[in-house]
User: Fold Beta-glucosidase from Parabacteroides faecis.
Amino acid sequence: MNLKYLLLAAACLGTGAVQAKDSIYKKGWIDLNKNGVKDVYEDPEAPIEARVQDLLNQMTLEEKSCQMATLYGFGRVLKDSLPTEGWKNEIWKDGIANIDEQLNGVGSARRRTPEMIYPFSNHAEAINKTQRWFIEETRLGIPVDFSNEGIHGLNHTKATPLPAPISIGSTWNRDLVHQAGDIAGKEAKALGYNNVYAPILDVARDPRWGRVLETYGEDPYLVGELGVQMVKGIQQNGVASTLKHFAVYSIPKGGRDAAVRTDPHVAPRELHEIHLYPFKKVIQKAHPKGVMSSYNDWDGVPVTASYYFLTELLRQEYGFRGYVVSDSEAVEFVQTKHHVADSYEEAVRQVVEAGLNVRTNFTHPKDYILPVRQLVKEGKLSMKSVDRMVADVLRVKFELGLFDSPYVKDPKAADKIVGADKHRDFVLDMQKQSLVLLKNENNLLPLDKNQTKKVLIAGPLAKETNYMISRYGPQGLDNITVYDGIKDYLGNQTEVVYAKGCEIKDANWPDSEIVPTALTDEEKKSIAEATSAAADCDVIIAVLGEDESCTGESKSRTGLDLPGRQQQLLEALHATGKPVVLILINGQPLTINWADRNIPSILEAWFPGQLGGEAIAQTLFGEYNPGGRLSVTFPKSIGQIEFNFPFKPGSQDGQYFAGPNGSGNTRVNGALYPFGHGLSYTTFAYSNLAIKQETPYSQSPVTVTVDVTNTGKRTGDDVVQLYIRDKVSSVIAYESVLRGFERISLQPGETKTVTFVLLPEDLQILDRHMEWTVEPGEFEVRIGASSTDIKLKDTFVVK
Assistant:
């Protein structure tokens, strides 16, 4: 049905009621409980804590419990796209904490009510209609928090897309990430969303894990720094940011996802120094209003049922003041997977007392609300615990201004604010800045457009787009494939031919990773067609890797080689004698050892977004000089895992080949590409490292400066990286830790001075008593182009 008629029908259902309710809108305040008196919670001038307490005092158990659950939007759990008379018989007649993904284009709503999703102004009007029902038709008029995903850009049809978070991490650009958050926050606000589920702060320590592509990388400092900027960007628009996934979620046993979500094998010191580090930093520096609790355990206790995680750490130590939502089934898993509760009701009791504010799952909210009510009535759950959880939810809603300005003020403005077309330059810029040049032997890249007469684009990912579309990002966009991007860039002056060569996976994959099978006749024919097409080409561009069916949520891998017959295709293309450029499309590090030894140029593109093909084309032909850096280590073999940064001394060393403990040569060692690695079409030189201490004591800042010069002939970006080594400590410290980075752009011959300021927190370790402290001693500063390519070193002493 057309939106116009749906809105008219909804209005007609309650015409008299709506007109009668008009009187609740007073000058400067809203009479939410319709009693004709400005109660404290209705007074915009009253302190927020007083407003929270006043509202809590007026709420019944029924109303409080409704503020403890999520209602998934239309097409998922909610059966109606707009309010109906039947809502008076639903559990949310007493309110609801939040409505998630309402009319965002994910799920069946995109097919059933497309006119409420796009144009954007229609969506804002539909959100207003829903919000109006809760303001006017519930007893206390508590507004709804409309939430939505946002790790790839706001999860709404035709909104502004971002590349995969692993691509965002590869930019090493704080300002760019802040701008991305700002765009997502502006679009959310214009559409009526109040809460964006982003960023993901999980630290990717195992490259087999399918959600590596949804993280910023493997290093806690880098993840934390970019996370701070994403949160600040989102929240500066009056929209909440909700961090995911708290905590120690990213290292399931053996890198396996989905069914295996227990037993992460993380020691207490590693828990705090690696996995909790980004959460602590982002909460204390950016003050996000939301956190999503994860459904795994740590040390035998489910995180969502852990008072230690949700109250002692999150609230008491880190100072979190927002509200916690559960990841899907986190509450249910307390009983069904972790078996630390003998009934679902007992699981509910545990999570509330631990500190979970809102249960979020793809089932009806009454599944959680009714057990909460029953537990209170039976005396098994105190009203004090319920009040504590509800107060946090209400506080966030007050802080967001929902009680005073609950509606999108100007729905028509959404059409001018929201959309990929409004931010095309930014989308393309972020995509280009995320590209990492892994190898460029004999400067094969950039290719000369004028000297290239014929190009073969080969590989099963050259014309694929599915990896550009995330369930957690914008839908309904026109995506530019690698093939189309290159063909459009070259125009008519260069002949472009295409050969798929093979499928992304073979018929037996992933079993074929452990038991190889012979090529079929069809596969041999397809590879032969590709090599034949290369006969009179100047260069071959091979586009290989993974698509969305190979990696992602619940898609962890057994191996990290190129899937299917792609390796055979690459070897056959190389055997033609033509120069080969390898474009990697992938969501996690791949063990491309043969390619590294044989293919002259390799460009890491990760899972690019809408304009990926255009960005890649501009980079291949030198219009753009790649400057991204790896935010994860590429291991040579899964037999090395874990092989990552940071690491403890000796944990990634080679073998003794001689001497009393000589062992011979039994294993491959070293990174294929280390953390922080990335090449450029120009070169950079580092000089004049200087360290200045205001005082030699631990609480004084330390200023580090270094000069960087572009010594090549092209403008380019460098990422200057600062690592710290604590030379002697009371406990074993990491070999070195990242404690500073700056992405800078330099013209040929230009020199810039890069300044880093090290604060006490940058020198801290967890001592033997598990206390964060700066221990006296000598610290080494390492300035480099990667974690292994260290250009300059110096030391300073702390007393």
